[in-house]
């Protein structure tokens, strides 16, 4: 990214942008104040004014603690992160609801779950984090940038409907991301329920239960009648054990945006799924192109928390803008570094945007010719 906005270069050289534009025009380069010029052009025009241009790359990495390697001894077990996927109306939301209701409100009386896109559920065998359906979008966005935050996919297939297009899509997503699948055959209470047919159809996509000679876990459930939910949770924990999930909680936190919004009263709000390290209130962060100091953190029950470790979802307040689902959040040393990294990213985004618009206007120009 060796470009600079013309106005910035002119300002740094202490000359008028119009002077520079004129000089560039004489050199055969047509640019406007807000457009970017490449390094070679900058060198050329600067020399015309008696300046030398030196490349001073902005090394984002020096701020980001990428050298902070995880030492094996520092790794501790973490809970699994589970995404529920499947065809529309096969019962994803119902399943998540029944898991949440029976596991949370029973234990914490009066605990009202609020929608934050990710839920931490206490089971007798340990904590499990579930990503909601919008997490599905985040999952896709994150997979696109090679960041897989889901450990296990629960593939919901309605017993009376069988494998449908989005079922296959979910299978393909999971396989591409190398995430193990647990099949939940839902709606077992229905008259037309035919789990054998579902199994047969899934076997065509290489998902086979053990008694068919495969290695995929199949669980029969009914979200409506709260049947088989314990078995499903048990299988999730069993699968998690096999995966030996670990993370280092003692480092600068890193996590991903699962959901985000602009709240009228609270400003930008983002649900962050912490991947490693421990996120704390007051931490200076960069999140996508935005930055901020974490003003407050809330869990999925709307309770204020002081910290969140690996696999824990939290709602975060205090960002300078609304990040995108799938954006990474990183803790930096201080507010100044956070702001610098954010500004650099914004500038980069702007120059990419400008490059796009100038190309578009050129294309339009050619159209008219
Ligand atoms: P989603 O689109 O995958 O999130 O599906 P929903 O959870 O919204 O469920 C779609 C419909 O199926 C709703 O009318 C649910 O009440 C119904 N449903 C979900 N699970 C079951 C179940 O186990 N049995 C029956 N009979 N209906 C169910
Ligand atoms: Mg739904």
TrEMBL record:
This is Translation initiation factor IF-2. Coiled coil: none annotated. It is found in: Cytoplasm. One of the essential components for the initiation of protein synthesis. Protects formylmethionyl-tRNA from spontaneous hydrolysis and promotes its binding to the 30S ribosomal subunits. Also involved in the hydrolysis of GTP during the formation of the 70S ribosomal complex. Belongs to the TRAFAC class translation factor GTPase superfamily. Classic translation factor GTPase family. IF-2 subfamily. Residues 80-228 are annotated as: G-domain. Residues 77-246 form the Tr-type G domain. GTP binds at residues 86-93, 132-136, 186-189. The chain holds residues 378 to 746 of 955 of the full protein.
């Amino acid at each position: 990214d060796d470009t600079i906005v013309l106005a910035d270069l002119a300002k740094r050289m202490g000359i008028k942008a119009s002077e520079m534009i004129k000089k560039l025009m004489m050199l055969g380069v047509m640019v406007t104040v807000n457009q970017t010029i490449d390094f070679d052009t900058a060198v050329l025009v600067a020399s015309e004014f008696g300046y030398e241009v030196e490349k001073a790359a902005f090394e984002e990495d020096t701020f980001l603690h990428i050298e902070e390697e995880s030492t094996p001894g520092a790794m501790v077990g973490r809970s699994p992160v589970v995404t529920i996927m499947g065809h529309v109306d096969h019962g994803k939301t119902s399943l998540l609801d029944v898991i949440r209701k029976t596991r949370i409100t029973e234990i914490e009386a009066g605990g009202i779950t609020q929608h934050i896109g990710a839920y931490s559920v206490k089971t007798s065998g340990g904590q499990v984090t579930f990503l909601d359906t919008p997490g599905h979008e985040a999952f896709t966005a994150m997979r696109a940038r090679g960041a897989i935050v889901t450990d296990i996919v629960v593939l919901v297939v309605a017993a009376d409907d069988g494998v449908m297009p989005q079922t296959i899509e979910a299978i393909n997503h999971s396989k591409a991301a190398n995430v193990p699948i647990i099949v939940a055959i839902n709606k077992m209470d229905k008259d037309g329920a035919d789990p054998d047919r579902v199994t047969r159809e899934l076997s065509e996509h290489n998902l086979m239960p053990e008694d068919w000679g495969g290695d995929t876990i199949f669980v029969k459930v009914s979200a409506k009648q709260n049947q088989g939910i314990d078995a499903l949770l048990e299988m999730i924990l069993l699968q998690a054990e096999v995966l030996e999930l670990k993370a280092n909680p003692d480092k600068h936190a890193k996590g991903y945006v699962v959901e985000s919004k602009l709240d009228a009263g609270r400003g930008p709000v983002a649900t962050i799924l912490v991947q490693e390290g421990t996120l704390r209130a007051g931490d200076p962060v960069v999140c996508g192109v935005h930055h901020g100091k974490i003003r407050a953190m809330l869990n999925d029950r709307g309770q204020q928390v002081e910290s969140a470790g690996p696999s824990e979802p939290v709602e975060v307040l205090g960002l300078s803008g609304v990040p995108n689902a799938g954006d990474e959040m990183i803790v930096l040393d201080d507010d100044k570094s956070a702001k610098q990294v954010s500004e650099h990213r914004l500038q980069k985004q702007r120059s990419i945007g400008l490059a796009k618009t100038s190309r578009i206007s050129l294309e339009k120009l050619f159209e008219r010719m």
